[in-house]
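Aggregate trends can hide what the representation actually does to any particular protein. This step matters because it turns folding into a mapping between discrete strings. For completeness, the protein is quoted in full, as a sequence line and a line of structure tokens:
=====
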Amino acid sequence: MNVMRTKSIEQTIREGDEPEYQLKKKLTALDLTVFGVGVVIGAGIFTVAGRAAHSLAGPAILLSFVVAAVCCGLAALCYAEFASAIPVSGSAYTFSYASLGEIVAWIIGWDLLLELMLGASVVAQGWSAYLGVFLERLGVTIPESVAYGSHFDLPAFLLVAVLTVLVSIGIQESMRVNMALVALKVFIVLFVIVAGIGYIKTSNYTPFIPPAQPTEGGSTTLEAPLIQTLFGLTPSAFGVGGILAGASLVFFAYIGFDVVATTAEEAKNPARDLPRGIIGSLIICTILYCAVALVMTGMVRYDQLSSEASLAKIFEDVGKPFYATLISAGAVAGLTTVVMTLLIGSSRVVFAMSRDWLLPPSLGKTNPRTGTPVKITVGIGTIVALVAALTPIGKLEYMINIGTLTAFLLVSLAVPVLRKRRPDFERPFKVPFSPVLPWISAAICAYLMLTLPLETWIRFAIWMALGFLIYFVYGYKRSRLAGNPHPSDAPPSMTST
């Protein structure tokens, strides 16, 4: 079985020009940067940062953000090289198809769906939680039967439904809404930084790196990081190990910059704008994250930080409830952009896979008026809305992280592979010091994966087993590279909707 068959870069680009699968090129470098900032700044900084500081790293959570940023920065360079050279929808899926082979491309595509769809569901629930807090401050209470944490989270469901309609209308229209909400969100983050500086107590930074200590009550084998299980290490928090464990958790806060690459085909000048959008959005978010972490742990001692709605809660703790209300409103707006961007990213990954006929090709046809894959967008929106409304997601940030880290790992390895196979191909942007930096990127990703809990690896294995089943039952036989005829020449049963 030739599961390692690869698609040439020229064929990949040529297929993007097929009329029935063609997306409209409307996005500028500014659009792409805002797109990246819009998805990156979200649930991670509004909630996860406080939890990681409280239980894992203390004030040194700042260093956790730096470690996670280095990992993402190296991966961003690899993404930028591929996106500028292969400006086609699908992000890491498309890149790996042209370098590592079809089975690896399928694995990455399946990973990206895990990251993006589950991420949208998790963030939609976080949005519902902040909406409830914000409305309560205004004297409005959502009925418990349909509120956050109920058997049917109605606000989360309605959010995803509305955003699905917006994304279906068109990418440029979505970006206009995204730009306005991102501006509000960045203002709120800057407000936290500026307003919080005056409440910093330098004594809260001591000790900056709390001494390592065993975790209270210990962890079960399933909950312990895989690296502890493999090497028999004693579960602990804080210290250097806590900083690295914190990095594997706050990594969730950076997820999304890679989504910029999924819109490659819709960029006006992808060779120039995609690297700027990917790297620019990551730099902006890293600076904001580090500043927020410094202010947050300076305002409230790390062991007193709230694990929920942490940015709002710190201002309540210093006697500024109005500020907390304002931050809650900003979180509602900010998380809206994250859900919308993740919906766009996941639809573009499925679009690329259907255009390669690994999934039913009829799904990927774009609407002539909107220039978007409406069937895919509606289908993904429906799944995300139901998962967000019905599933108690809980700790599944780790599931999102492992899917993303796997994609980062394989993209990093793919850069030197494609350099060797196609040294002649023009690359408007090149990763410096290749192959050393891509190898370092892959090694960091692999280490962070090992710090994730064993139960996350088990869930991930189940997800991947389902993906392999679909590939070998359907995708392998119907792939373009299997020599099948164009869908328009196929029997009606293959193209029916």
In short: The beta strands are 213-214, 236-237. Confidence is low (pLDDT under 50) at residues 489-497.
